[in-house]
């Protein structure tokens, strides 16, 4: 039977009509009766209606409305996928305010300390289609719908605080260049191809964002380990009508973490659902993803003295200049009940703000405010998508908008207009409570222009690069080399090197060297050269602010027949104390026979549990197990990759043959746990993160 939710004007559950009981009985007392969409009980769901179907089937009859309705509904099961951010995963939760911003905003969600507001948050990649891999090198969408008591507020952000372009008119070009090339339909979910680099190398305003997407921010360990940003400057408006500029930041409780590039490539094969599975599992396990909401507040005085324009979405405001002020927390504690109804049909729109929160004149934001409603109309099929349970506000809602496709409301009465006098208690506007735009004086000529302050495209790109640790800088250089190595047109590679030279000649030369194109660096002409005096900002680096903790992480523990069950049990106990989970990988999914005769249950079979799925690895092997696994390519790759991906490796002394076969060289991240000893040294080192020092010994750094 079709189940309905308790959201207002939808069709009544049949149980409520009184028919349900009877149908239930008809189905044999234990299951609800299967019916058509019109509620007619179905007698046979296995066979279509056929003419003269005695020994051999005759033709299927057009009359079979049960068959036709079922196939017809199936034929229409898909809606157009999002043109960008098609691949996503989402969860429900709440936002709780911890510090009131009442002085700055009249929005209740920002002023009532302790009040919880329901949220639905969708994370996504940008370029890939709905079925692409989670681990593509890409920006991640971070879209938050807050169902406030004063209407829905959507903060439709990304995990990177700047953007590729300054004006919405360039968005279709950017996306056409980034997505699959139109003649061949590939590559999928990646920017490593000619059209993307052609466009960005001709669009110098993208340079700052390029630094960010070539950094490890674009290959996050999980959604839980990402920051989120509203990107644009918004405005807050208080009860007296005074406006303050604001930027919004989400900061993850589990800390920022990313994977390394070779690992990202392998995760895409090992588990294309890596991020959505992680989100789903962590919520199911009660390990709720959590973020702080922080704001940067500033006034006109700061706007005047800031080196860049606060309305330019390709720039950020360093935290050293305007510190973050933490005002609340967001917890995701419930997985969706139905992926399509919720995650697919959720309609985020930047235009969704509540009284007390307002837009700025950022031309990118202004264009977005048009695009999101427009796209929902075609994606969700008409103007009534706000009635879908996932999109409906959770506060009283009343207006005179009527009819249209899929109208679920059944409004009573004669009055569907305003002003009116025929009925008492029709909805009226309220100048005190209602949404008011910031009062702003505007004058001047109507022109298609970019403000002068928008013209510096390289200074913040340079500041970003030199704010990174050496390891992170190496990764950025390698990412440029990887991406440009996939660009077939040499002139595009050269032009990109020329733009990079505007950031810093040293970076451009390193990339050129890695491409085997030394001597090919010629600066592209620019009117505003990069400033070299911007101080580095530690907040821009992942590693400088990494949390030294294992909370929420996964240990992959390799076992085989003959393993010591006590070692595994002890590891589990010690790991649980640190809030981290142990998953056991064995040659057979039925588990491994421990030396004491018990069975160590397995979570993964070796071939389906590569080490890329875990944050660190532990080899709980007996001598016999290590010998056997040394001849097993998947086991050797498990250890080899763990080492090459700079992970901390714990192992029993008996595991040495496998370590040797995998080419592991002893260093501070390889910890041998002696018989009877605890695994605490391994866990202590693992909590500090990867062994970055190992990197130059496992790959060439240009
Ligand atoms: Fe956008 C989706 C974030 C610029 C037009 N965008 C979309 C989503 C996120 C963002 C997170 C997915 C929402 C979801 O999960 O359903 N977009 C951004 C950010 C931007 C940005 C942070 C720059 C700061 N977007 C941008 C521009 C335009 C769009 C300039 C058009 C002028 N974005 C769209 C869209 C999408 C979308 C076509 C596709 C599906 C949808 O809206 O619902 O309207």
Automatic annotation (TrEMBL):
Keywords carried by this UniProt record: Heme, Hydrogen peroxide, Iron, Metal-binding, Oxidoreductase, Peroxidase
Active site (catalytic residues): 85, 158
Stored PROSITE patterns: CATALASE_1, CATALASE_2, CATALASE_3
EC number, as in UniProt: 1.11.1.6
Entry binding sites for heme: 82, 122, 171, 368, 372, 379
Location of the region described as Disordered in the Swiss-Prot/TrEMBL record: 1-55
Keyword Heme: yes
Alphabetical list of Pfam families matching this protein: Catalase, Catalase-rel, Catalase_C
GO cellular component, one term: cytosol
Composition skew (Polar residues), residue ranges: 32-41
Entry annotated with the keyword Repeat: no
GO biological process, one term: response to oxidative stress
Alphabetical list of InterPro entries matching this protein: Catalase, Catalase_AS, Catalase_clade2, Catalase_clade2_helical, Catalase_core, Catalase_haem_BS, Catalase_immune_responsive, Catalase_large_C
Catalytic activity: 2 H2O2 = O2 + 2 H2O
Top enzyme class: oxidoreductase
Family classification: Belongs to the catalase family. HPII subfamily.
PANTHER family with a match to the protein in the record: CATALASE, CATALASE-B
Stated role: Decomposes hydrogen peroxide into water and oxygen; serves to protect cells from the toxic effects of hydrogen peroxide.
Name of protein: Catalase
Originating species: Tunturiibacter psychrotolerans
